Amino acid sequence: MESARHMQDHWDVYQKGADQLTRDLFSLFSKVPESFKKQYQEVSADTVKSAQDLFYSLLGNIVNNVSSLILGVLLTMLYTLFWLCSPVPMDSSVDVMFRKYIMFKTLACFGYGISAGLLLYFLSVDLASVFALTTFALNFVPEVGPFIAMVLPCPVIILDSRIERPMLVLFVAIIGQLALKFAFSNIIEVKLIESDKKLRMHPVMILLSVGVFGYLWGPTGMLLSVPLMALMKIALFSELVPSSYRDPILVILEGDRNAPRKHGLKALPRITDARWPERV
């Protein structure tokens, strides 16, 4: 809410940046026909006006529905708190696995969000604290969320007329966030989560599970995609699942041909009918 008012108070700064961007594009395409320049100028002016109208409309909707938004956030926080403190009855191994995933994921998201916010702050990007919060929240969505968080500051950087070299700042911000994403998602988070073998999973399977569970249950499904897939892996370790089915599924989920051996699994003994001799 406060961030939306901040942008409204400094809208002239971004409008000035949009005008500067238009002039830069004109100088870049100085040799194009005059008719094209005129059409581009009209389109750019309409785009800025439409963006301003859209922002004011969104701000009005936020103000009108702020009570329902606060209530929804509080209910979500209370639900998550009660779920973590008093989870539904389930097997102890599943309970521990869910708690570990939420704890490890929260630590990685918090570190990534703080680091991204500090990067944008030192680059003098407006609303750095807001982008840090959105990065923290979006990073809970595996693989997809961090890239969405990287794109969000781009319009603010490009249109902020107070930044002398916006394209350079944009380049540094993108490269810096990519480096942070690699460090936290591919190294720190992997080391934390894969310390539990049941949570180990190939990135392609993570993307697939995010898409499937996100389609079914929205953001909640995206958040729970990895622990739900881990729950499927736990079910594979049951004695009722033959190794002929279990081992290929483990190889597919982890992307490792040696996955069954790493879990210390052995093939189940063959069951033969006592009435018929086993062929050699």
Automatic annotation (TrEMBL):
Ribosomal protein found in the keyword field: no
Stretches that traverse the bilayer: 66-85, 106-124, 136-159, 166-184, 204-226
Record family assignment: Belongs to the autoinducer-2 exporter (AI-2E) (TC 2.A.86) family.
Annotated compartments: Cell membrane
Encoding gene (name): tqsA
Principal location: membrane
Name of the featured protein: TqsA protein
Domain of life: Eukaryota
Topology term for the membrane: Multi-pass membrane protein
Keyword Transport: yes
UniProt keywords, alphabetically: Cell membrane, Membrane, Transmembrane, Transmembrane helix, Transport
Stored Pfam families: AI-2E_transport
One Gene Ontology cellular component annotation held by this UniProt entry: plasma membrane
